[in-house]
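Key result, reporting period 2: structure in, sequence out.
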């Protein structure tokens, strides 16, 4: 016999809606502002190369996608380890 005492739940958010992103200001005088989008481990399904450490971001790893605010098409999007993104001001030699 089915249960009838369950509350109606709102439908899950559409996958095409994507997660929200924010704009982060670069370190003082160092780089341009970036759109930043967190990617959950469950949404990470491909392998990417992190420009901060040049190591792979494997599927299932939560990470950050960032691209300059003046890049309207998103062609310069880069996938970063979260720690590499946070520590980028102290590093040199990464590809933006």
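The corresponding designed sequence is given below.
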């Amino acid at each position: 016999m089915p249960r009838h005492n369950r509350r109606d739940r709102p439908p899950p958010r559409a996958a095409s809606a994507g997660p929200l992103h924010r704009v982060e200001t670069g370190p003082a005088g160092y780089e341009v502002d970036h759109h930043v989008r967190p990617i959950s481990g469950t949404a990470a399904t491909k392998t990417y190369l992190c420009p901060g450490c040049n190591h792979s971001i494997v599927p299932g790893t939560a990470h950050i996608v960032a691209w300059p605010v003046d890049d309207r098409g998103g062609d310069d999007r880069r996938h970063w380890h979260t720690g590499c993104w946070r520590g980028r001001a102290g590093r040199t030699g990464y590809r933006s």
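The mean pLDDT is 80. DSSP finds one helix and six strands in the chain. This case is discussed further under Risks and Mitigation.
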